[in-house]
Amino acid sequence: MVKKLVLASPRGFCAGVVRAIDVVRIALDVCPPPIYVRKQIIHNAYVVDELRGEGAIFVDSLDQVPSGGTVIFSAHGVSPQVWADARSRSLKVIDATCPLVTKVHVEAIRYSKRGFTIVLIGHEGHEEVVGTMGEAPDAIVLVSTIDEVEKLEVKDPGKIAYLTQTTLSLEDTKGIIAALRRRFPMIQGPPSEDICYATQNRQLAVRELAAVTDLILVVGSSNSSNSNRLVEEAITSGVPSYLIGDVSKIRQEWLQGVKNVGLTSGASAPEVLVDQVIRYFLRGGAVVEDLVTREENVHFALPPELRQPQSQLHVLP
Description:
36% helix, four-stranded parallel beta sheet, single chain, alpha/beta, flat, 12 strands, disordered C terminus
């Protein structure tokens, strides 16, 4: 029987996710309909369904947006080609890209203009990676493992830099960066680690959670990179861990012999889903405790398209 549920803090929505959701809701409120959103605004089906119910139209491709329509780009960022496609269709664009992802794009452009080979540490096919690689496709090579680093060949070992997908595991990037530095002693990196503050804080909280629990549940979607990394962090710390989309995914066999359960959520998971899990354990007689590891007070400004009169919402030149 589970006696205690320990809640990690911080958990759940980061500033970039809050901003992206706010962008959609404000656009629905102040812009003439219909409002289209390219891809999932964040990687959480519950949030997407909620926004769809409020009037947002989610599409996989800009081809599904009528010429001259209004479209929101997701928090994961897009490539220059997507911007060009929007321009060619005379679309009105509201950019909800997380500012920390935009920072990586800017660094990719800066290194490519200096003739560097850029090693991007990330997962193939992830929307953030696709967008970043699109900034300098001829200059960027993607690596996901240390083995791939060992096989890497570059044109000029003296002009090489690395960047990282913002939602990766701290341990994963640490090992890959160390391997890159061994192979390419002159490699350059960004001024500060690209892994975002929220990713770091949530992963570090899981490590501390692992020290006081027998099992850790992570609320998040299966396509959420940062949520999957939280599961990995827990397992690496020696505690069984499972990713659950919502409370219905909890399996009783996981809880056999478990007294203390840890609970956290990915940066794109809404707190309402966490509350459902809390109520589940309260009904079973568990007491709830908070484990606060650090405080967060980060806020990002809205995109300029929503900080000007909507009559001035621009068509891309």
